[in-house]
Specification:
The complex is a heterodimer of chains A (147) and B (139).
Chain A lengths: L13 E4 L2 H10 L10 H6 L11 H5 L6 H5 L9 E10 L8 E14 L4 E11 L5 E12 L2
Antiparallel strand pairs in A: 1-3, 2-5, 3-4, 4-5
Chain B lengths: L17 E2 L5 H11 L9 H6 L9 H13 L7 E8 L10 E12 L2 E11 L5 E11 L1
Antiparallel strand pairs in B: 1-3, 2-5, 3-4, 4-5
Classes of the chains: A alpha+beta (147), B alpha+beta (139).
Chain lengths: 147, 139
Amino acid sequence: MLDRSYVGHSFPTHSVPVEAGQLRFFAKAVGEESPVYHDREAARAAGYRDIPAPPTFVFSLGLVGTDLAEKYLPMGVDLARLLHGEQQFEYFAPICAGDVITLESKVTDIYDKKGGALEFAVEETTATNQDGELVAKAVQTLVMRNG
Amino acid sequence: MSAINFESLSVGDELPSLAKPLISRTTLALFAGASGDHNPIHIDIDFARAAGMDDVFAHGMLGMAYLGQLLTQWVPQQQLRSYGVRFGSITQLGAQMSCAGKVVEKFEENGEKRVRLELQATDENGDVKLVGQAVAALD
């Protein structure tokens, strides 16, 4: 069971450098072939400061240096029964290689369906860059299958 | 990069579809490393079986990255304002995902011309794995 006292809980804020090598690795892993996601010059020609983080990469920044089990075990999450229910992003400015992104996230809701067979935890994250500019917001819904 | 413009688009217009190659164990291993999601349920068959699954299965965020590519091959990423998905059912090892999207609304917001898109990723059996929505700003 998820511990409902975690509603309102803030996870420790952390700052993460956005590394070009990691962005290229991500692009390779998803079969992204556009040079914009591999090559700095192509990215600059497309109007970015450097290689851009693709649309879902904020989620990965949140995982850098994070041990999933360590982060979620205290609130009752078992990785073996964890599914991803929903994921939302809002974009305010590009995230590019060389940026340092500060992530602040908190649990905003925990609820269940089907008499507790499925439990849901909603986590909201804001991402701010090294200039203090809000670059993205993310909302993820984690699902625990208890049935 | 993009010849897409607001005036020339109509509600119902479809985005060019995107077909991804088969999701192999290598795909999942690379995505685990590249995405930072190291949950063993996606990469370790022993862990998956102990959890009651037949095998490892794909990260939801892999499918979301694929649908994201559908978007960024259509419109430059700087023009994306929001993007979200609901994960319908588990994407199995060996799945071949097809990504599709269409324009469902044209509107103006924050001084920009924007379109709302509905997105869908299906496997080779036509089973819907992810449904999503995005908003992009257009000239």
